[in-house]
Automatic annotation (TrEMBL):
Residues 190-288 form the HTH araC/xylS-type domain. SMART domains: HTH_ARAC (SM00342). The lineage of its organism: Bacteria, Pseudomonadati, Pseudomonadota, Alphaproteobacteria, Sphingomonadales. Keywords: DNA-binding, Transcription, Transcription regulation. This is AraC family transcriptional regulator. It comes from Sphingobium fontiphilum. PANTHER family: ARAC SUBFAMILY, HTH-TYPE TRANSCRIPTIONAL ACTIVATOR RHAS-RELATED. GO terms for molecular function: DNA-binding transcription factor activity; sequence-specific DNA binding.
Length: 293
């Protein structure tokens, strides 16, 4: 039985989904935005056939574990934080048994032609299960915030935000596909990201990453920046702080050991970087987490 993208499955599979709710919604000019929650409670699988462009972002901070397959992909993909599915293509999906909260954005060709003056830059776009693009992510999160707490002239603002997100998606999609600028394949950026996450305790120079990924130093930096919108250095710094937060959530490791496992040369360097990123020292962060728990 054909079914729609992940966040819409609840309408056709009520036996498998519990607590479905649309928390906020906006629609205008062939564009629909909404924030929704639902809980997959029984295993299921099926086909997806979206009729409009579909873009969503996870709002609960947890990694999605739903599996998608497409004729455009050599292998199945796990849905990441940001998912994009072009219309009129068949997908196969198997959702994970988990509770989700998403911002969902769907739009048709009329919306694109209005934004891009009778052209459609996403006409040949390929599906992306895990878009790593900082600018697009910021646009989507801003829309979610405005939908949740709309202010003055929320409608025009949301439409403008949606246009900005669509422009960023189109730029990124063309960058991925355009051979004139040097094709950037999603799996290359994913491999770089995996290499970084697996080696956060080491020094992680760009040349080391390049050797591990079979790429030149120049191409590593270019590919990652083009595909994600952030530099490798900024991404490494963010990953190290995120890893430190996870480790500081418990008292199992001393702060000095957390520092070492996150790739900092000294506890003082770790403390300075952590404070710059979070506004508090590692010790204060651990104490605050302990009180909240």
């Amino acid at each position: 039985m054909p079914i729609r993208p992940e966040s819409d499955w609840s309408d056709l599979n009520s036996d498998f989904v519990a607590d479905f709710a649309i928390l906020a919604r906006f629609a205008a000019h062939d564009l629909t935005l909404d924030v929704r929650t639902y809980d997959w409670v029984r295993p299921t699988a099926g086909q997806l056939l979206p009729r409009r462009h579909y873009l969503d972002i996870s709002l609960d901070g947890a990694m999605r574990r739903s599996v998608l397959r497409s004729e455009r992909w050599a292998e199945p993909q796990y849905s990441g934080s940001v998912l994009y599915l072009p219309p009129n293509a068949l997908y196969w999906g198997q959702p994970a048994l988990e509770r989700r909260k998403l911002l969902c954005m769907s739009f048709g060709d009329a919306f694109l032609e209005n934004v891009f003056e009778d052209t459609n830059p996403l006409h040949h776009a390929i599906p992306q299960a895990d878009i790593q693009n900082g600018a697009l992510r910021r646009h989507l999160l801003a829309m979610a915030g405005e939908l949740a707490a709309p202010g003055f002239a929320a409608g025009p603002l949301l439409e403008a935000m949606a246009i900005a997100a669509t422009v960023e998606l189109a730029r990124w999609s063309q960058l991925i596909e355009d051979p004139a600028t040097g094709t950037v394949l999603p799996h290359q950026a994913r491999r770089i990201e995996e290499c970084i996450r697996e080696n956060l305790s080491s020094a992680l120079s760009i040349s080391d990453i390049g050797r591990a990924c079979g790429m030149s130093t120049r191409n590593v930096a270019r590919v990652f920046k083009q595909a994600t919108g952030v530099s490798i250095g900024d991404f490494i710094a963010r990953c190290r702080i995120d890893l430190a937060k996870d480790m500081l959530a418990s008292d199992e490791l001393r702060i000095k050991e957390v520092s070492w496992r996150c790739g900092f040369r000294s506890s003082s360097a770790f403390s300075a970087a952590f404070r710059a990123a979070t506004g508090m020292t590692p010790r204060d962060y651990r104490m605050r987490r302990g009180m909240l728990q």
